[in-house]
Amino acid sequence: MKELRYVIQDTLGIHARPAGLLVKKLQEYKSDIKVGRPEQMVDAKRIFGVMNLGMKCGEEMVLTFDGPDEDTAALEAEAFLQANL
Which of 34, 37, 65, 69 fits as disulfide partner to 41, beta carbons 3.0 to 4.6 Å? Predict the structure, then answer.
């Protein structure tokens, strides 16, 4: 299992456009991917779950990857987050 922590840089936090792009990107992988705060993790491949987190600028988000392509998924998710959030 891989874990990635990222502090949200976008001043609007996780809003519709980047959330949709993130979900679409993560749906490419077979691994089970969760996102959120340690006390509230949701399926990262479901837009409503990601949007309901309501994460703001400056908050640390945690992503966990568990599955056959977890290494690739974690690397590409980190690059995506740096470019979009």
Answer: 34
Which range marks the domain in which residue 56 is found? 2-84
The pLDDT tens digits for 6-58 are 999 988 888 888 899 999 999 999 999 999 998 999 999 999 999 999 999 99
Q: State how far Cα 9 lies from the chain centre.
A: 13
- DSSP secondary structure string, 58-79? TPEEEEEEESTTHHHHHHHHHH
**Residues with catalytic function:** 15
DSSP secondary structure, 12-33, as one string: T-S-HHHHHHHHHHHTT-SSEE
Check pLDDT > 90 for residue 72: yes
Q: Cα 50 vs. chain centroid, distance in angstroms?
A: 8
Q: What is the CATH number of the domain that holds 25?
A: 3.30.1340.10
Number of compact structural domains in the chain: 1
